[in-house]
Specification:
It is built from six helices and two strands; from the N terminus they run E-H-E-H-H-H-H-H. By secondary structure, it is mainly α. A two-stranded antiparallel sheet has the order 1-2.
């Protein structure tokens, strides 16, 4: 069945990952890579335009959850101080998103908060870009 663009599929649940707690940094990196691949596929579906199948619409609807899961994993790989700061930034950005979705007239304080969203996102992106990358150690051949 084809679902009009922008409408969620009613009969199919979107694949939403549960909050992830991966203690092995290498496994976390693998999961981040997988989630980012899925987000690229979703972006291609959005750009495709036209009607989406129920499965495609469900995949597009899962984008916020996938993005949040990848962000949580990335933050989890930061050093303690950077992690603390990233969580504060993440919370502020979530508050800004809620304000934007609220609609209606925003107070001057709310407008000021929303106006800082770009700078906060840039700061969070900078923290995440500076995080250490964990890769599997090559096994020694004997």
């Amino acid at each position: 069945a084809v679902v009009p663009k922008g409408e969620p599929a009613a009969s199919e649940e979107a694949e939403v990952p549960e909050p992830l707690e991966i203690s092995d940094p290498v496994e976390a990196e693998k999961k981040i890579k997988t989630l980012k691949k899925k987000m690229v596929q979703i972006q291609k579906l959005k750009e495709k335009g036209g009607g989406l199948t129920e499965e495609e619409a469900a995949k597009v609807a899962s984008e916020p959850a996938l993005s949040n899961a990848a962000l949580e994993l990335e933050i989890g790989l930061l050093e303690p101080e950077a992690k603390k700061h990233a969580k504060v930034l993440q919370r502020k950005l979530q508050d800004i998103t809620k304000l934007k979705n609220k609609g209606g007239q925003l107070s001057p304080q709310e407008r000021d908060k929303v106006s800082k969203g770009g700078a906060l996102q840039k700061e969070l992106d900078g923290l995440l870009a500076a995080r250490p990358m964990f890769r599997e150690r090559p096994t020694a051949v004997t």
